Here is the input.
Amino acid sequence: MNTERRRRILAALVEEYIRSAQPVGSKVLVERYELGCSPATVRNELAILEETGYVFQPHVSAGRVPTDVGYREYVDAMSPTSRSLSRDDISAIHDRFVHGATEIGDLMRDTACLLSRLTSYVAVVLTPAASAARIRKVDLVSLAPRRALVVVITDTGQVLNRMIDLEAEATGDDLRVVESALNHALDGTLAEHVRLRREGLTLDAVRAALAARVMDEVVDCLMEADRARVRQAGTASLLEQPEFAGADSLRPLMALLEDGVALLETLSGVMRDSGVVVRIGHENPRDDLGNVSLVAANYGGGGESEGIVGVIGPTRMNYPRAIASVRAVSDGLTDALGEPARDEDRGRA
Here is the structure.
């Protein structure tokens, strides 16, 4: 953008439109924002902004509305140190991760609820891929002579379990021996390598068959968890946004939120860089999300063990608050999930 004055006028227009959801005229900008120029100058600058694609006029007598390009200019020009969260907000985030749930499923659900409350948008949390996590521990609990509970704990803090029926009766001693052998063989193993560890087991035929059965269930647990990785909250908040007052505008977004696989692919598709990522309107990978913005960030240990946290709302989004909230929650989740590893390093796990 050529001039600082034009940049200030665009920022004022974006902020006013975010606040009011109404096209913005030059008179409102001069009255409410310290632009240091006359209404006539503002009108001229708005005309240039429209010619260059940063704003548009819904109809001749209306004010202007930002385009996706205008929002992008506004977001890119934001100060990285701008304060958009209050002390109460920061305290709520801190309390959630210090004193909140510790089981991974509850933590993800509570995180989505917290982020939705902070932003008033739909919040989405994508848990780290269980199939990309490493096994920390396997527990076997006897439920009946031919039934047991398999509990799998990963290095990302996920606790997965399922009941299995056994082909032969298994005593408590059988389960303890198999459990010990599996923990020795599988510690630090990825899901795709679990079955390869069978050859290293030194068990009699009966216990080897039990171990093989359990290993199959461990793999199935991890793969099933991958199919249910998405937690979300705040869907009802969409109805409060004027952009989604009509069924036609809301339908594509609701379809995405109801399709876990499509939502997972959309989130994963935008996370190519570190830090907070903002996708505005037609920047999104799906053509039917042209009226939607996504603000997201990775959290966790890096690489395939990372998850994603983000918010989805109209392009008329409070970007400073959404970005600050996503960044703070991402940092809090990363710290919370790091605690088990630090405890283990100190020998307390």
Notes: The chain has three domains: 4-77, 87-129+229-345, 131-225. Residues 319-345 form the longest helix (27 residues).
